[in-house]
Amino acid sequence: MTEEVVRRMLEMVNDKFPCTGSPPTADFPVLAVAMEVGCLPVELWRVILAYLPLPDLGRCCQVCRSWRELVLSLDNTRWRQLCLRCPECRHPNWPSQPEQEPPSWREALKLHTMVTRTWTQNGPDHQASACLHLFKRRKNRRVWHVGPGCEYETVRGALGMVGPYDRLVLHPGVYEEPAEIFLKVPVELVGLGSLGEVSLLVCMEQQCPTARLCNLVFMPPWFSTVVYKTSWGHVQLDNCNFEGAQLQVRGPGTCQARFCSFSQGSSVHLAGVVLSLFDSCDFSGSDTASITVEGPLVSERNWACKYLAALVRNFPCDLSVNKPLRHTGLQAQVTADPEVHGDKKADSKIEVWQGRNDAAGQCTVIEDRCSDGEKSLEEEDREKIKKSVTLNYKIQCDQHGLSHLLKPASDGSLPVASTPEPPSVTLELLTLQQELDRDPEALRFVTSVLGCIVRRSLFRDGKGGVYLSNYAQARLEDNIFRGLNYGVRCIQNSVIVMLRNEVCKCRASGVFLRLSAQGFIAENDIHSNGEAGLDIRKGANPIIVCNKIHSGLRSGVVVLGNGKGSVRSNRIYNNKEAGVYILFGGNPVVSGNHISQGLAAGIAINENGRGIIVENVIKENQWGGVDIRRGGDPILRNNYICNGYSDGVVVGERGRGLIEGNHVYCNKGCGVWVMSSSLPQLLGNFITHNCMYGLAVFCRKDMENIEAREGNWNGQEWIGRDEIGVEEEGREEQENMHEERELFAWENDEDSEDEHNSSSRSVSVALVENNCLSYNGAVGLYVKSSEPLNVFANMVNNNRGTGIGVLQSCQLTRLVTNCILKNGRGGVTVEKDCRVELRGNGVYDNSNHGIHFLGNGQIVENDVIGNGGCGIQVAGNIDVKLLRNRVQPCQGCGVSVSGPVKGAVRDNQLFQGHPGHKNNLLLADPANDTCVIRNNSIFTHDSSCASAPAWILKNPLPRPLPSSMAGLSSSQYPSRLGNSVTNRISATVESGCHGGSVFCCIL
Fold first, then answer.
1. Closest to 593 (Cα-Cα) out of 577, 576, 610, 573
2. How far apart are CA 277 and CA 260, in angstroms?
3. Fewer CB near the terminus (10 Å): N or C of the chain?
4. pLDDT at 417
5. Which candidate, 160, 185, 186, 155, places its Cα nearest to that of 171?
6. Long-range interactions of 550-555: CB distance < 8 A, separation 24+
7. CB-based contacts of 981: which residues, under 8 Å, 6+ apart?
8. Which residues contact 315 (CB under 8 A, 6 or more apart)?
9. Dihedrals φ, ψ of 816, to 5°?
10. CA–CA distance, 944 with 170 (Å, rounded to integer)
11. Comparing 11-20, 229-238, 408-417, 622-631, which segment has the lowest mean pLDDT?
12. Under 8 Å CB-to-CB from 963, ≥6 apart: which residues?
């Protein structure tokens, strides 16, 4: 019954649409009524239509709108069968995802049919009139059969007789030719039967404008590994296998390969090719690179370039999407990334901060000798002191120069310096579309790159994926690189565009760029590689945006040897070494990335590395969030460095750099760890809510271990490992020697170094200026240094320990115009043998002594008000000057001088804390004749006059003063305005750990 219905239906359709003409688009009421009145359900009509072949389905699709919808509804049945049964077409998602269904089987078959006809499109274009295509002469094609018992038994014999555009159908068998075959006319070679039944052991050279090879297996003959080559025509390869053979195309020749397999050492070699397309191909077991592209694009183009360009023009329509815009400030809400965090909670920063009390309460603070005096006050005494002092008697000091850091904003939100809770917000990533909107030049760059186009292909289990050299160009989209020595290698001024590829499990680096290579690498998944995910060297300057770079056995991104690049809006996580590693003159721009969960530092700048590190989120890394050592000299600005399992920022031996405007919070170690041999500039950072010190400056020169440290540094073992390993596995000796020379040529590269030095200013003293050190678990600023240090205009408040503790300072430490406020112990503690200058500071409301001073130096023009113990306590065999300070203690002396103190106490103003305050405001040892005490003013409350006005700090106002801070930063200390000068790289590289906190480790 069904076959009869189909037969009658086809007769009706053929009456209306004869095979000789194209059917019109009008509806036909007779057929529509037959379909509606025939009482057949839609499901049965689908069964009937499923019997039709492809030409009949096309005719039925144009009967009427109802029939068209029915035909289109057969996508997962009949259209799927037609697509998979086509001998020239494999699964649309072969070879990378054959288990995944395409969006539409009908569209996949339509695209395949259109693409397979590209090779016949050559010929003159008729542009004089739109109707001339009706008179275009059609190509007369004949079909010839080749094989035993057919018209021709050999391929060579058939090619000598065929006409232009004829089809040679090769019957199953093996065809071997003892000499090279030349294709002199356009021809189509098609294998009959399943793929693998027709094998060619030939070497073909195309000398005609176009040719097509389909459903064939190519194997190399005895005299050459090249099985097909062309230097000016276009070749189209559909559903072919290459086994141990090479495909060679030279410009202006072009190639289009679809659903082809290159195995057993097969490869593709392109030289100067303007445009070639490899779509849905499988490359496996390569002895060299699977695809080698070399040479600049030739100026001449053949006829196929126009059609190939139309096939690849889909950028930027296929952009990924909708991710939230990253805001510039603390108002952007953080979003949890399940791919990065796994089962971790989004509020892990709160958990870290809640656990800081335990860390601070135990003996985790290194050498916490910041004793707040000879005897610390007990907790109950402090409570009594707080109750005994009222606001009626305490001098008001709320209008000091840094008070704006403590005042609520206009919307009522509390600033970072005054909120006891850690920040709960951070920056978000930009999408690729947003990045391109911000950088139109990058979009123009991407759309201009042609050369070799590789799409939806699989590269596996071989030496290399794609290799570019000598000004070559390539574009890789939606490919998989797996189990190779390297995925992509781009050198010698070549240009690469990589979009939405997966590069994984490579034995060396996943993507390698060097020798002034350029590229645009976006939305790739680069993971689980043996070396770096991306390796950038020797002047390479790619744009790396919106990628996932994770789970590497070493670093995520490595930039060295004067490499550059822009690394933006990437997720870099779970790498065993640094997320971004910059060394040997590397100078990238790293901005807007999320760098997290690394087993080492988030960003490491070492061995004279540089770089601009801006607006990144660096969190949950095992070692320091940012680690700067051995001449590293970056600009670190406006980053969020948080929730680390060690220190936030580590500036190791000989580290430099400008560290400005960063938020460093909720780290289990210190906020910032600085070695005294380093010369960083810390400006305007918020260092808060860390479990240990806010900022620690330590002395770890380890001179006795220099000999042990000299020699091989661990990093040297792998700097060229991926490159050397790759070169040794098949590249010729001469090329290998050439690349080895290039690898170390950066040692003599003067241009980039001179450019850097010309814009730098020498720094001789480490600078800490305009920072906020608040709510840290131990001392706010901890100094144990053998080098000079300048500490200017910082807010140090609400730390659990002392505000500023100086335990060792062989050279002068200057504490100028700082505000030390409400710290859990004393304000400032200076131990024996230290050289310290305190000038213009405000020391307010600390729980113990305002200033406890056992060293040498000056205490000049400070305001020490409302502290729980003495205002200023000076003791020991020291030389100190106390000049023009204003002091009001809560309990204890205003100024206490005990022991054989040398120096002078002059022109100070001492205010009584409250009427019940019985201690002497100025207490000095009567036996001391070496300290000059004169011209000090003592103010006490008049108990007989209850209405006496409160004392006010004026002439000048409460310190620190805004005018003095501006003067310091702009003129007196100009070193903050520039980066430091980096030294040339020496031949000997030190090794070993150069110190750090209990959590800090060398990379």
1. 573
2. 12
3. N
4. 87
5. 155
6. 550/340, 550/526, 550/574, 550/575, 551/527, 551/575, 552/510, 552/526, 552/527, 552/528, 552/576, 552/577, 553/528, 553/529, 554/529, 554/530, 554/718, 555/579, 555/580, 555/581, 555/600, 555/604
7. 757, 760, 761, 762
8. 446, 447, 499
9. -130, 130
10. 122
11. 11-20
12. none
Helix (H) or strand (E) segment spanning residue 573:
strand 571-573
The count of C-alpha atoms lying within 13 angstroms of the C-alpha of 123, restricted to the half-sphere facing its C-beta, is 14
How deeply is 6 buried, as exposed, middle or buried, from its count of CB atoms within 10 A (0-12, 13-18, 19+)?
middle
- 58-114 pLDDT per residue, tens: 777 777 777 777 777 777 777 677 766 766 677 677 777 777 777 776 766 677 666
78-85 vs 105-115: helix axis angle to the nearest 10? 30
Q: Which residues pair with 512 in a beta bridge?
A: 489, 535
* Residue 825, φ and ψ in degrees, nearest 5: -125, -135
pLDDT at 132 over 50: no
CB 770 within 8 A of CB 684: yes
User: Beta partners for 254?
Assistant: 234
pLDDT in tens, 747-798: 334 344 444 443 445 778 999 999 999 999 999 999 998 889 999 999 999 9
Strand stretches in 668-765, DSSP E: 672-675, 679-683, 686-688, 695-698, 710-711
Structure tokens at 56: 């009949």
pLDDT attached to residue 917: 72
Instruction: Quote the CA–CA distance of 648 and 326 in Å, as a whole number.
Output: 22
Q: What's the CA gap between 431 and 324, in Å, rounded?
A: 7
Q: Tell me the C-alpha distance between 442 and 790, whole Å.
A: 42
Contact predicate 547/569, CB 8 Å: no
Task: Flag whether pLDDT at 495 surpasses 60.
Answer: yes
- From the list 495, 535, 499, the residue with the least C-alpha distance to 516 is 495
Give the alpha-carbon dihedral of 901, 904, 909, 910, to 10 degrees: 20
d(CA 321, CA 532): 27
Comparing CA positions, the residue from 690, 761, 680 lying closest to residue 977 is 761
Please give the structure tokens belonging to residue 518.
């350029």
Contact (Cβ atoms closer than 8 angstroms) between residue 735 and residue 959 = no
Return all residues near 865 (Cβ < 8 A) that are at least 6 apart.
394, 395, 397, 842, 843, 844, 845, 850, 871, 886, 887, 888, 911, 953, 958
In terms of C-beta density within 10 A (0-12 exposed, 13-18 middle, 19 or more buried), how is residue 987 classed?
exposed
Of 64-68, 310-314, 390-394, 817-821, give the range with the top mean pLDDT: 817-821
Cα distance between residue 887 and residue 861, in whole Å: 10
pTM for the whole thing? Answer: 0.83
Distance, CA of 273 to CA of 255 (rounded, Å) = 9
Element (H, E) at 452: strand 451-455
Tell me the pLDDT band of 742, cut-offs 50, 70 and 90.
very low
* Residues 544, 77: Cα–Cα separation, whole Å: 42
CB atoms within 10 A of CB 840: 22
Residue at 538: amino acid letter: K
Contacting residues for 954 by C-beta, under 8 A, at least 6 apart: none
| Token representation of residue 614 | 């801006």
Task: State pLDDT tens for residues 337-371.
Answer: 444 444 444 344 445 445 544 444 444 444 444 44
Where b means 16+ CB within 10 Å and e means fewer, 28-45 reads beebeeebeeeeeeeeeb
